[in-house]
Write the structure tokens for this entry.
Amino acid sequence: MFRKILIANRGEIVLRIARTCKEMGITSVSVYSDADKNAYHTLWTDESIGIGGNKSSESYLRMDKIIEAAKSCGAEAIHPGYGFLSENPDFIQLVEESGLIFIGPRSESVRMMGSKTAARELMDKHGVPIVPGTKKGITVTEEGILEAEKIGFPILLKAAAGGGGKGLKRVNNKNEMPEILESARREAKNAFGDDTVYIEKLIEEPRHIEVQVIGDKHGNYAHLFERECSVQRRHQKIIEESPSTFLNCEVREKLTSAAVAAAKACDYVNAGTIEFLVDKNKNFYFLEMNTRLQVEHPVTEWITGIDLVREQICIAYGEKLSFTQDQLKITGHAIECRIYAEDPLNNFLPSTGNINYQKLPQGPGIRVDEGIDTGSVVSVYYDPMLSKLSCWSRNREETISRMISALKNYIISGVQTNISLLMWVLEHQLFTSGKYDNNFIENHFLGKNISLEDSLSGAEVRDITAIAAALVKENMVSQNGAKQKPVHRNEWEMLSYE
Amino acid sequence: MSELFVCYNGTEDCIRILNENELLLNGKKVRFEVHKVNPYFLILRAGNRNYRYTFNTRDEKQIGFLKDGSYFRLSVQNKLEKTIEEISSHRQGTETVFNIKSPMPGLVLKVKKQVGDVIQINESVMILEAMKMENDIKSPASGIIKEILIKEKQSVDKGTLLFRIE
């Protein structure tokens, strides 16, 4: 087995991968930008190597620096995590050529699936249904309008190299096309370094359901069932669950078979995810393949008991899958909530700051994949996701109760988070009944819907809260212990940030 | 100890802190205990019950808490602050000026309005790129744009004055 692995990423996923490394007796090495010098992932891996810069383009996207770091520390393999270079075929090729092992698919598979237009063609050829749309990139407004009119408005503009909702825009009519096309191309360029966008028909009442697939280097394939990811905002997933309430056995069988066929079509090795759009009549369409470990992989780990990262590492090392398809079954129900530093009541503006204090929920069936710790800094340079809270129980109802309870015990001070929005979703009748689609947040969350009065409805609670506010104002809270200092930070941090 | 006025959701409470364990809430005596875990997390005990508060944000007027998965902000003023506010709001009358400040550091991608434009509440005035996303900056009020203090492609810090709307 590998002795040392470099993890070319930042935040929670680095810690997630490092935890499995530790279990397997593998030394984990992280890389860090200047801004992340004292970040959680930097300090909690076995080794850490500075690669300079603050911006991603100066650090986590610098292929040369990352490969050099891996070589210099004697790592045998690189795990890319998600985002950053994880789906960049040029990077994978460089890793392969440098004599290191890439923990993920081969560069050819990623190249094939990475261009969404090429992937659609490939899927079409292999009998996997696709959403109607253009097969080539759009650069000129007139061409965009012409193609969109052929398919019929409303349409979606999507970044060919994209993912994560960046460079993805809805266009309702031809008048909107010039401005939105320009904006989509700009976002695509900034996020992926490639401004190619294409057009896809907008499916009404769509649900986003994806299938986890995995393949080894010996031609064995398996799927690990579906993840329902329809609770989204601006095409960013917020809550994921497995199994989906929308699929019956028959549709699940068809969907997972199509997913495995898709993986085989690109000769796929390692863990990957086939994303589908499912319409209200349970017809499904191939959306894209994510050729990497997915953010929401914990829900699959909960219901199958498989450690996907361990599986990834073993496959990369050349081992066979540790299980067969018929050994897998869905046990219980899992939900994941993404905790973002943003203010749902203020147009979801990202919130930055120092994490003054954090105490994470615990208990049976509760897991937190956290990217920050007390003392961490949430900066403007990176994605605002702070952690992933996932829960498991025997059935969906129990899992929802467990998640609500865990959210109530999620203590974090220093940034605004979306916790209140997550609570609102979990208690919403459309969510509890399972009758939601991708437009749930946009259609039902009007910004002021998160009623804060509920939690203060009892006269006693309201009184006590008023007292707490008054005590803070008068600094009375500090008189019980030592005198209150304005900010509690370690000296290392002061050196680099002040 | 002076009086404090706590306002939440339109109603106001008057609190006079007597000592570390007693205060008057609207004239009624309340006994309490404060257990401070650290400057950002406190447990208030009243009777047999424990109330946990994560102290999150604070500006000149408001104090923000996270309690049981919900955020809320209460405004707290002492007698002097309350009096000053009453005088100044009286003086301003109906004429109001809104200063739109940048809510976060970022890059100004696009300025959609010009000085003199009429703008509606919630209408987008500019696009600010931060954390890899394009964020619409919306007007907090309807009015006329009096001043634009930034240019496209300009980097701005949190709190930079962007627009003045009257």
Q: What stands out?
A: Chain A touches chain B through 66 residues (CB under 8 Å). Residues 478-498 of chain A have pLDDT under 50 and may be disordered.
